[in-house]
Amino acid sequence: MKILVAVKRVIDYNVQIRVKEDNTGVVTDNVKMSTNPPDDNAIEEAVKIKEAGKATEVVAVSIGEEKAQETVRKALAVGADRGILVKTDGVIEPLAVSKLLQKIVEKEKPDLVFMGKQAIDDDCNQTGQMLSALLNWPQATFASKIEIKDGKLEVTREIDEGLETIEINVPAIVTCDLRLNEPRYASLPNIMKAKKKPIEQLNASDLGVDITPRIEQVKVEEPPKRKAGIKVSSVAELVQKLKNEAKVI
Amino acid sequence: MSVLLIAEHNNKELRPFTLNASTAASQIDNDVHAVIIGHNCDEAAKALSELPLIKKVIQVEAAHYENFVAENFAPVIVKLAENYSHVISSANTFGKNLMPRIAAALDTSQISDIIKVIAPDTFLRPIYAGNAFATVKSKDTKKCVTIRPTSFDPCESSGGSAPIEKTDPGEEFVKTKFIKREEVKSDRPELGTARVVVSGGRGMQSGDNFKLISSLADKLNAAIGASRAAVDAGYISNDHQVGQTGKVVVPDLYIAVGISGAIQHLAGMKESKVIVAINKDGEAPIFSVADYGLEADLFEAVPQFLEELNKLNTIQK
Fold it and tell me: In this complex, do A179 and B292 lie within 8 Å of one another by their Cβ atoms?
């Protein structure tokens, strides 16, 4: 079984986001970038499946600017066998990403495609579902547990009401929740080894997909700030404030 | 052209966020039609027809729609979408799972999780866990939009009498099979719509200690929330998680107990009307969004809180 894992380079989850003064976006210059956190879970799961002898190859793919190569390299350092970078410039929407991934899937013919359930930058939560629609494959979104059972996957999904279990035939798409597993750290020897693993570079334009944005970003603004609150010195004072000032109890 | 709303239901009743999504749909265009796909869902379809904002209900019934599998739902909506300018649903796990499958089939770039309708093609949506708001304009002819339910008031639920039209079902997608759903039953208000939410974090130290949170929630007739750290540690189940990758809540009162306030958690609760934080670390970021901060050991403060509430005798029913 072959697993393709899509990884995205995003602003690190610990960075305090700043909106650009001209309201065209958020500041990304000199800001720490990392792998989108649930994409780390996706890689981890694929590598674990391979280690359990149930997959033969894990391929990491990223779509983005030249520097997204670092994100692919990180996936290689935690156990992916080889990488693919599809180079694009500027804004690329989930629909375009899923069309590019479709081309990669047609070429690589994986049995499974894993990725994070959402990217923490645009918070869209679309790409996996869109890719499965384009391929007409089953989708298991928000996965917190995956079991492989002869050619099928039993996936536990985190939904608003609790948990849902579905069974999907391979080939399929799985989007991963942060609770799926505990991503490992790359060891130094593995980081060194990853430098020798191949990364194939492609240009989005070579794949024959129209990736022109369909959504115009009119402006990006700071959200309204909450006005500063107060510290209370005791529980009695807190309850009195909630009752008489805020009038919420 | 008119707007097609995807109703969320459990085959018996409408799920509450359908009312919020109806409000959002009506702000795009007055002519809102709603599609309900399910199995033996006449009661829910009737409830849908009684929403005064809905002009027409389209009901699609088949056994394979009983469990809301997106692979079965999407083709039905894609076909109906021919007659509509917009397809709308809630940005909860139901809509998040389903809408992109529809959008891709329609070759439309979806707009997720809007918090405001500015114009029929222009919307406001939070990005970066709510640390920035983007105004976005769709250039697609058909628009697929998911709405953040807590940003739109629920519409009236009675008084309407829209006609219910039945349409033939589509084929079953056999490669995906529903096995089971484990719903956590509770007599407490639903987290997404509760007036008061009491949340616990890593500071609770164990699942057993969450009893303190439950006692406080019982006293205030509140829903129980949790930070991701608390869910990851196994103190409480995933359906309680508040934050960027969990639920977004906007109660009148949010009480954060033993929650440090990572930006990912704040993304799910910082629009609450009144925020209380109880934490022994005075530097915890949660205090930056709290209206009332109490720097204290939660294991002393929460029992005192209960005592004070008993004294007040203001049990909210």
Answer: no
